[in-house]
Amino acid sequence: MKPKTKKTLKWIGIGFGSLLLIVIALGIYVYSLIPKFEGKCPPLQSYLFEKPKSTIPVECKFIYKSASELAELIRTRQATSYEIVKEHIDYIKNNNYKYNAIVWLRENDALEEAKKADAVVAHGDSLPILHGVPVTVKEMFWVKGLTNNLNAKMTGGFIAPEDGELVKQLKKCGAIILGTSNVPFMLGDFQTYGEIYPTCNNPYNISKTPGGSSGGSAAALAAGFTPLELGSDLGGSISVPSAFCGIYGLKPTYGTLNITQGSGPDTITKYSRFAMAVPGPMARSAKDLELMWLALKETSIDLRFQKSVVWKPSSDKLLSQYKISYTDDWQKASVGTDVKEKMQWLINVLKEQGATSKREVPQLNDAMQHSFLKSYALMFAENQPWIMRKLISMDFSKFDDGLVNMSAFYDAMNHPGDDNWKLWQNENNKLIESWEDYFKTVDFLICPVTYGAAFDKCELGTPIKTKDGTIPYTFYSFPYSIVFAATGHPAVTIPLGLNSEGMPIGVQIVGKYYSEPELLHFTKLLEQLLPGFQKPKSS
Per DSSP, which regions of 47-205 are E strands? Predict the structure, then answer.
């Protein structure tokens, strides 16, 4: 071998070795930045995900009854909490394998708590509003002794050391926590799948998604596994699954419920930026939605990110006294035929009741999408070094199908400083003020949640086929589901019946800040005229 060739190969080897060392060092550095969780995820309760060899006899006396009905049966001693809880547990064990909605079940603890609830009834003590009623909770919220891993192996070893604040409040109001419901990997998609739990299926058609990230929550309600669910929303995580599974969901006003204490497995990272994320109730009826909200609104606040709210009671208005605006084609955010038809039918119902309606909405959709993406990036970029921000951007690019302008996200990731965060706050406050001014002229805005009904489960980013054509993945849910997360306005998702394929269609009703009591009053009035929740044929 010629000396020149040897020298060239030597330098190639040195270069390759140096590059390999750099890659290894970079990998070690990145790994050191990720919060560590001791231990491994405990073995799954396999009976939840496998068809039982023999089914447990269940009378179904209480399955699909509302939480309000169950609470009344317990209060009047027509039924015990124990038999109600037991029937729901047995029903879950018989049927969860079809949908993978519930991922952890507190069978023994729940039954013991139900016995104690019945003892309180027997003593004749005054009862809280959810006394003895079974409830399930999205897996992101701490339930003492249960895994809280967000469907990710790297956090699989985290066991909740105590109940989170919202779970404490539910228990304080008498609820019996049955278990936790399925979530997507790190809560990061409009479908519900990940590294630990089996993929969650829509009870109306198991080939379709129940939505995300509160997909297990919505599926559990639609399947009859629970009368109430505690979900959460940062960018459509309550509204999308509610629409896809034909249930009611409330995304409360930002900052009114405590989502920061006892949620998620990371107890190490300290942060100061927070926006958009809210917990909220999900139910099969408007009355139950209100019942759970009444319980949750008394949760202790996190003084870092919340302030106390003095809630004004709702009015006693009739539907004829409301002023409504609506849209289904908002700055290129068009929707499919199914949604348009259901939306128009709803508006006609309101007109027949004498409500005032107008097809008019501020042209702020683009600005609100920009605000959401900027805020999302700035929150996750806080205290992150350059390399981690690049990795986060690479992961987020899976949502970038070219139709929605994502530049605000990437720009914010590249400029994550406090000055940019303050600039976003000022920009977003102006959007909020614009909407608050608008809501002085109308009571509520009614608009879509997604382009259409639940779609077939697919790989993230896959274009979605509909009878109206093929729709880019992100565009199917982004334009309507994320925008009011950006401004923090409350919204109730309501079911409007099924389409020709038997899949639910839902829309959302948006109100001004702190209008939850009035929103729920309006929703209860409207529910009397609408199909409401309709059981899946498979249930």
Answer: 102-105, 134-138, 176-181
> Which tens digit of pLDDT belongs to each residue from 265-284?
988 888 899 999 999 999 99
Q: Among candidates 247, 246, 282, which has minimal Cα distance to 504?
A: 246
Dist CA 116 CA 498 (whole Å) = 41
* CATH architecture, domain 46-366+418-527: Alpha-Beta Complex (3.90)
Say whether 91 sits in a helix, a strand or coil: helix
Alpha carbon distance 514, 218 (integer Å): 24
In 439-515, alpha helices (H): 473-481, 483-487
Q: List the alpha helices (DSSP H) in 76-150.
A: 81-99, 107-122
Angle between helices 516-527 and 286-296 (to 10 degrees): 160
- Token pair in block for residue 463: 């274009």
Of the candidates 338, 318, 531, the one whose C-alpha atom is nearest the C-alpha of residue 449 is 338
Contact between 510 and 489 under an 8 Å Cβ cutoff? The reply is yes
Q: How far is CA 99 from CA 44, 56, 220, 241, in A?
A: 16, 18, 8, 14
**Separation CA 184–CA 49 (nearest Å):** 16
Binned at pLDDT 50, 70 and 90, residue 4 comes out as low
pLDDT band at 32 (very low <50, low <70, confident <90, very high): very low
CB 223 within 8 A of CB 95: yes
Q: What are phi and psi of 213, to 5 degrees?
A: -90, -10
Element (H, E) at 6: helix 3-33
